[in-house]
Amino acid sequence: MNDHPLQAVREARERISASVDHDTKRLIERCREIEKQHKGGVVSAPKIETDVVPAGSRD
After folding, report:
1. Looking at the whole model, is its pTM more than 0.90?
2. Among the listed residues 31, 53, 52, the one whose alpha carbon sits nearest the alpha carbon of residue 42
3. pLDDT tens digits for 16-48?
4. DSSP of 8-45
5. If you ran DSSP here, which 8-state letter would residue 54 be given?
6. Do 20 and 30 touch, CB atoms closer than 8 A?
7. Distances in whole angstroms, Cα of residue 18 to Cα of each of 15, 22, 26
8. Are 27 and 20 in contact (CB under 8 A)?
């Protein structure tokens, strides 16, 4: 099993936690600051165009 993507997530989470000295309260405060800066959303879902017709929608 390839755990590389999971390991990359764990490492990123560790860096984020370390950036606030592993203090949960500081982490939450930092997240709220970032949310205020990006009121429209930090990440938006891409628009996916497809020719697939959803099941049940055909006449």
Report:
1. no
2. 31
3. 999 999 999 999 999 899 888 888 765 655 666
4. HHHHHHHHHHHHTTT-HHHHHHHHHHHHHHTTT-SS-P
5. P
6. yes
7. 5, 5, 11
8. yes
